[in-house]
Amino acid sequence: MSPARPIASDRKENFDGIPQEEVTIRLRDHPRALRQIEAARGWGGIGCFALVALLGLASGVPPATIGVRALIAGVVGYMVCWFLAVTVWRHLAVAEEAAARSFAEQRRTALLEEIKRRSAGLAEQEEGLG
After folding, report:
1. Structural domain count of the chain
2. Which of 11, 67, 80, 130 is the most exposed place for a label (fewest CB within 10 A)?
């Protein structure tokens, strides 16, 4: 798993001047990221192990040497794919958070406009009755 590291943690104020809470994105709390990072690690290790083993067998290297090389390649492939998957998911998580924040702000603005429209309609009805 990836170490807990804040990716987006700026203290900002929203449009009303109210400070927003700090946002810390953790990949270990993201179900899709966790599942895909684990899959990438596994396939990276198995893939590198198999590739090096097959190449060793095809070139006539002794079996003991093939085993050691394949194990080392499997560990390296595991680590490299883990690093790449975490890097990709850090960027994706930040982008998802920005999109969700934008959608929430648009929805908030639309709801505030609807409230203003309805309150203006109620005020007109009260003036017409009174």
Report:
1. 1
2. 130
